[in-house]
Amino acid sequence: MKYSVLFHPRAEQELVELHDYINDVASPERALAFMAGIRDYCRVFLPFRSAGQFATIS
């Protein structure tokens, strides 16, 4: 079975804002690379998808 990383909508929005900030103060290439790094890091946890706990974010 194939799994993927899903971000909470609030986290997704924060990532968009972080991307925009890095894009403005550095470069579009740096912003894309930084976002790819965050997503790649999160994918490291896919083999351990059952190890965590579910949390309600309000």
Q: Figure out the total of helices.
A: 2
Given the C-alpha coordinates, what overall shape results? Answer: flat
Distance between the termini: 30 Å
Q: Helix fraction?
A: 55-70%
Mean pLDDT across all amino acids: 86
| Assembly annotation | single chain
Q: What is the ordering of alpha helices and beta strands?
A: HH
Q: What Rg is obtained from the alpha carbons, in whole angstroms?
A: 14 Å
Percent of residues in beta strands: under 5%
The major beta sheet can be summarized as: none
What's the short story on this structure?
The protein starts with 8 loop residues before the first helix and ends in a 15-residue tail after the last helix.
Keywords:
58 residues, mainly alpha, 57% helix
Give structural notes:
It is flat, with a radius of gyration of 14 Å. The protein has 58 residues and is mostly helical. It has a domain at 9-47. The mean pLDDT is 86. It is built from two helices and no strands. Helix 1 (9-25) packs antiparallel against helix 2 (28-43).
Topology of this protein?
Elements: H1 9-25, H2 28-43
